[in-house]
Design brief:
By secondary structure, this protein is an alpha/beta fold. It contains 14 helices and twelve strands.
Amino acid sequence: MRSKQVFIHWFEKQLHCLQAIGLGLFMLLFTVACNPQSQLTLETTASTHCRIVQHSMGESCVPLNPQRVIVLSGLDGVLALGVKPVGIAGNLDPLFVPYLSQDQTEPPQIIGLVGDRPSLEAILQLQPDVILGTSWDMDANTYKLLSQIAPTIGVKLETDAQWKEPLIKFAEALGKTAEADRVLSNYNARLAEFKAKMGDRLHQLQASLVRIYPDSIAFYLSSSFPGSILKDAGIQRPPAQVIEPRGQNQQRIDKELISLLDADIMFIWTYGYTPEIAKAAESALDKLKTDPLWQALKVVQRHQVYEVSATYWFGFGPIAANLVIDDLLKYLVETPS
């Protein structure tokens, strides 16, 4: 029933797009949507050779040297492999994450939003060789539709601490396993450098990861992206924050429980999917700083609270991970307490 409703909604949208995309393209989409078992595909390469890739959603035959790559999620990892996609799923605002846009002289086309169903007509127009995504972006039905357009790789994820898994699987699909090995070796080498510079002090340190919302406070767990990096770095968490509620990467708390945030150090950030939400979160942090409960925290009194950028602490991939390591070195090694 759900798939039928999804198709009806999609079909109505296509009627409004006929003049823009042409009748031929519409009929192609119609055939793909109505016939999931159809053998209709787009030729992505003149070569008949391909690389068989086993993944969470099935098996795909990917061209040996894919040139036109679409990324639904895991963009950070794909860019770290040296691949520039022709299309990506973007965030609400900005559509292209700032820390990933520095080397993008020709930004890829936005084909939808991260975590939402991508635009099939936009993907068709880009004529991809391969589509890369995760279970956050596609269910089984969406995977079948995308696979009719181009070989599609899907990686099942349960938490954003699993950022290495799509990196490794996408590298396999793109023929970039050596590059992935170098990326992860560099990550591990930098962590080893950090641990060596911290010495015995590392084992005496507990860190709190805090996000301020416009209307609430949350601490991030080991199952989160930044939590996974702190774990890899050997940094401990306060006992009250060592919880693993299923399917969550953070735990929201009432202000009356703010003592749960206390630690030797704290990394804190605000974030908003729109400028309005971001501004409201920043205002909430400013207000919190004047609250007696906040000022009573030992970490605040010792001036060991560090405001960091949500764009990469809230990231997902090796580029963001290395930026987090930069902050660990900056605040804990270069300017220790």
